[in-house]
Each structure stands twice: as structure tokens, then as C-alpha cells.
Amino acid sequence: MTTIGLIRHGSTYWNKEGRAQGHTDNTLDEEGLQQAAAIAERLSGEAWDFIYSSDLKRARQTAEIIASRLGLDIAGLLPGIREMNAGQIEGTTEKERLARWGSAWKSLDLGLEAPEAAQLRGSRTIGEIAMKHPGQRILIVSHGAILHNSLRGLVPGMDLSELLKNTSITRITQTDGVWSCGLYNCVEHLHL
């Protein structure tokens, strides 16, 4: 059985402002650093073999804090689990999108990465990591939208109606080529 812990990065200033981040290379804010330390402390009581991260700063910073606490080196920075490209809406708030493109902005071609493309990209990357480390326990630090879409591909029919919270952990396992989810969007480490 291969176990993967999927972690969304800690909070950023743009998270708080409601701005679409996409590929913008933002850093964690002070709260995000504290959240990363909290998930790192939680994970220190568990056995993990590898940690991978998206190549964007906010995920990488989160992964570095976790890796340091667990005594692991980051095994790789992977563009395949980078956040979805937000096209022309990157850096904007909902209010700014409404002002610029009107209430039907979601129906316009603004260069956003399609959910289906993100599902394929993310689930393929996670699957490749699992194939590289069969029977191991692997952490992957990434982003909310790409993780959401990756899970749609890996665990079809899973209830994903709740958006992933900053530094939440979702634990999936693969047995005989089939993925299942035993823990979703858990942030109990933020409430200690």
C-alpha cells in the first residue's frame, strides 16, 4: 500500500484579499508560516519517507518547514502539481473581475486552465510519484485547485464540495492500483 499525504500550502496575503493566485509566485504571510509550523509539528509524530512540492514559493516554503521538522530533504519541486493557470484573472478579486468583464466573466475565454487539463496533469504527476515509491509514505505540498482536480481524477465520485483549507492534509492510499481517501481536508493541527 502506498500512502500519500496531500497538503495545501499555508496562507498568503492574496488568499486573504481573495485574489486569484494561479502561477503568481507569492510567499506565505505570517499566518501561513505559523500554519506550516503547525502541520509540521503534527506530522512529526508520523512516519513519512519522502516530501515533494510544487515549484511555486508558497508551496515550497510550506514544504521546507515540514521537511526541516521531519528531517527530510525535499525530493523534488514539480511543475506538474503547480497551481492551475488563472490566465487573465490572475491577481484580481471577484469585484475587480465583475468591474472589468461583467457578471458573465466565467463564460469568457480569459485563458484559464481547464479543470479537465488540471485533473489530468495533477493526477498523472501524483501517480508517477506513487509508482516511483511503491509501498512508501509520501507528502506532497501543493495548491487548492490543482489538488481538488487531481482528487477528482484519482478518487472518482469522492465528495469534494468542501474547499481545501490552508495546510489541510488529505490522505489517500493506493492498493492494487486503486486509490481511496481515508482523510479529507483535515486541519485539526490549527485548533490545538
Walkthrough of the structure:
This is Phosphoglycerate mutase. With 192 residues, the chain is α/β, with parallel strands linked by helices. It has a single domain, classed as Phosphoglycerate mutase-like (Rossmann fold, 3-Layer(aba) Sandwich). The protein has six helices and six strands, in the order E-H-H-E-H-E-H-H-E-H-E-E. A six-stranded mixed sheet has the order 3-2-4-1-5-6, with helices on both faces. The two termini are 30 Å apart.
SSE topology string: EHHEHEHHEHEE
Structural class: alpha/beta
Quaternary state reads single chain
Highest-level CATH class: Alpha Beta
The number of strands is 6
What's the CATH H-level superfamily name?
Phosphoglycerate mutase-like
Biggest beta sheet attributes: 6 strands, mixed
Under the CATH scheme, which architecture would be assigned? Answer: 3-Layer(aba) Sandwich
β-sheet strand percentage: 15-25%
Spatial order of the strands forming the largest sheet: 3-2-4-1-5-6
Uncertain runs: none
GO molecular function: phosphatase activity
Binding site for substrate: 8-15, 58
Active site: 9, 83
Protein name: Phosphoglycerate mutase
Structural descriptors:
Rossmann fold; 20% strand; globular; 192 residues
Topology:
Blueprint: E1 2-8, H1 13-17, H2 30-43, E2 50-54, H3 57-70, E3 74-78, H4 94-101, H5 115-132, E4 137-142, H6 144-154, E5 169-175, E6 178-186
Parallel strand pairs: 1-4, 2-3, 2-4
Antiparallel strand pairs: 1-5, 5-6
Helix pairs in contact: 2-3, 5-6
Pfam families: His_Phos_1
Protein name: Phosphoglycerate mutase
GO molecular function: phosphatase activity
